[in-house]
Amino acid sequence: MSPLAATERYAASAAPPAPSSPAIAVRNVSKSFRLPHEQYHTLKERALHAFRTRSFDVLQAVQNVTIEVAPGEFFGIVGRNGSGKSTLLKCMAGIYDIDDGALVINGRLSPFIELGVGFNMDLTARDNVIINAIMLGLSRKQARERFDDIIAFAELEEFVDLKLKNYSSGMYVRLAFATAVQVDADIFLIDEVLAVGDANFQQKCFDELTRLQRAGRTMLFVTHDMGAIERFCDRAMLLERGRVVAVDDPASIARQYNQRNFRRTRQELGVADSELPPENPAAEVHDAVFESPTGEVAITSTQGEPCTVRMDVHFTEDVDDPIFAIALANESGQAVFSTNTDAQRIPTGHFAAGEDASVRLRFDNWLSPGRYQLIASVARAGFGADLFDAHMSNSIIVLADKPGGGLADLPHTLRIERG
């Protein structure tokens, strides 16, 4: 694509948008990548096969996407891995050129796509903050004036003169986020950068983004966390294989995302379509989260300690003896734990239309270190195959003070006898 074509297809303005114009306008945007069948890794390989015909597959990462985001809107973008979410955000940020369509950005951008790009690991946090803030658009004076606020937000006052190569990944991301959020931008592009850090820091990040939104800033937020989509976004968009499936209110998009995820998982297991959740179920899973001992949402759990899962269900019709089920799957998609009220012979009784139920599962956490996804569902009485609804979004990271092995680290003793 020529430089002229790129200019025609991607227009940006540093001035804040007029009230009647969108902050971001994406019109029939497409982006593809060529994937070579053979890759050369050395100059010798390239020289030996200089005249070999190279063939490619074409990956259509983004296809004909059209959306408009209003000034001050918190807009969510969701979809399965490979659906084109991050590619679309990088097109908006100007990291990728687009193949077709047009992008209009009215305002100054601050991309939270790869936090810490430009950080020098051999320099201290103090030097990196000043340099990175200037790279992101602040003047040297502004960078120095905001330095104390950046360090305080990152909670790294004791480590300001430590080289970044000695920082943990969590400390690194906190510093990068605290620096990037100080940029005087109109539009923030956020791609899963809040998945690292403890729960308190994640909440602080969301509070800061909410404050910026109230100040009229525009947020585009890519995530797999449907709870965050429903909690923070004004509208959301669901992508599938690079195409727009729907743009709607956050609750509707979260439900469609969960249904598609669950539908795909069931199909991979060979379950018939008739046994998948209906579009308008008699019972809806409104939320499914891991709980801390104080009842707050938990994102980490320490191995060997009790763990609690809460599942909130709303009934839109009268239902007798529904089956509540909860399962955990690891990052490979393997089910590592599953239970339901029917298997445990727990009577559930009658629920009237409009009634709510909270189901809690408590267990001693002996899972191996890693990330686990929560899968919660409610089904009609019987064999549990006639699903009302399913929820697949919240995940938890299991921490341990020693390496794990297998799917679980069961409590055990090792004993050696001689003779």
Would you mind describing this structure in some detail?
- By secondary structure, the chain is of the alpha/beta class.
- The chain is built from ten helices and 20 strands.
- Strands 6-7-8-4-9-10 form a six-stranded mixed beta sheet, with helices on both faces. The chain has a five-stranded mixed beta sheet with strand order 12-20-19-15-16. A four-stranded mixed beta sheet has the order 1-5-2-3.
- Helix 4 packs parallel to helix 7 and helix 6 crosses helix 7.
- The chain is globular.
Number of helices: 10
Beta-strand content estimate: 25-35%
Q: In the CATH hierarchy, what is the architecture of the largest domain at level 2?
A: 3-Layer(aba) Sandwich
What general outline do the C-alpha atoms trace?
Answer: globular
Provide the helix percentage.
10-25%
Q: Let me know the CATH homologous superfamily of the largest domain.
A: P-loop containing nucleotide triphosphate hydrolases
Structural class: alpha/beta
Number of strands: 20
Instruction: Give the neighbour order of strands across the main sheet.
Output: 6-7-8-4-9-10
Give average pLDDT, whole number: 80
- For the termini, the CA-CA separation is 78 Å
Rg over C-alpha atoms, rounded to the nearest angstrom: 25 Å
What are the low-pLDDT stretches, counting only 5+ consecutive residues below 50? 1-8, 267-275
What is the highest CATH level, the class of the largest domain?
Alpha Beta
SSE order: HEEHEEHEEHHHHEHEHEEHEEEEEEEEEE
Number of domains: 2
Fold blueprint:
Elements: H1 3-9, E1 10-13, E2 24-36, H2 43-48, E3 56-69, E4 74-78, H3 85-93, E5 100-106, E6 109-112, H4 125-135, H5 140-145, H6 147-154, H7 169-180, E7 187-191, H8 199-214, E8 218-222, H9 226-232, E9 235-240, E10 243-248, H10 250-268, E11 283-291, E12 300-302, E13 306-315, E14 319-320, E15 323-330, E16 335-340, E17 350-351, E18 356-364, E19 370-379, E20 387-399
Parallel strand pairs: 1-5, 4-8, 4-9, 6-7, 7-8, 12-20
Antiparallel strand pairs: 2-3, 2-5, 9-10, 11-13, 13-18, 14-17, 15-16, 15-19, 19-20
Helix pairs in contact: 4-7, 6-7, 9-10
